[in-house]
Amino acid sequence: MRNVIRIMTGCVLCAVLAVSCAGNRQKNSGASATGAESPYTVEDLRSGRQDKIRAEGTGKSSSVEAATQIARMNALTVLAGKLSPADTADYECEDGSKVQRTTVQTPVADAALVDRRVFHDKKTGVFTVWVLIEASMDND
């Protein structure tokens, strides 16, 4: 049972990293009001200080608080990956399926919220929250 939980956790982390690390996106002039595309420009993602690094994350939920927590966790994952590259390992399950697990070893405790943008889809009632966080490159 523990192996299944570990594999599922690895799958979720891989999915978060794959979505979150898609790269810096340019802000579209016609960005949707639902927040489907990042509201941050490449310039927003650059910190004004050389000893700081920034990352963005997004989260969706019917609760704005939950969407904010999801976005913050996704941004922290991206930030940790930028501070220390992730280790990736492939595993084969008992049923023959293959799972890729990505582990990030850098704790990010002092990340500060730089910006938060909330979008609400009135048709579905879902909130999309984008956060921009910043942390020191020297996390000792």
Can you walk through the features of this model?
- With about 140 residues, the protein is of the alpha+beta class.
- The chain has three helices and five strands, in the order ααβαββββ.
- The chain is about 30% helix and about 30% strand.
- Strands 1-5-4 form a three-stranded antiparallel sheet. Strands 2-3 form a two-stranded antiparallel sheet.
- A hairpin with a 4-residue loop joins β4 (about 110-120) and β5.
- α1 (about 1-20) packs across α3 (about 65-85).
- The chain is flat.
- The model is unreliable at about 10-30 (pLDDT under 50).
Rounded to an integer, what's the Rg over CA atoms? 16 Å
SS class: alpha+beta
Quick check: average pLDDT?
74
Order of helices and strands: HHEHEEEE
Spatially, the strands of the biggest sheet line up as: 1-5-4
Poorly predicted sequence stretches spanning 5 or more consecutive residues: 10-31
Number of strands: 5
Helix content: 25-40%
Roughly what fraction of the amino acids lie in strands?
25-35%
Backbone shape = flat
The largest sheet, given as strand count, sense and whether it forms a barrel, is:
3 strands, antiparallel
Number of helices: 3
Termini separation comes to 35 Å
List strands and helices in order, with pairings.
Blueprint lengths: L1 H19 L21 H4 L6 E10 L2 H20 L3 E6 L5 E6 L8 E10 L4 E11 L4
Antiparallel strand pairs: 1-5, 2-3, 4-5
Summarize the structure.
The chain has helices at 2-20, 42-45, 64-83; strands at residues 52-61, 87-92, 98-103, 112-121, 126-136.
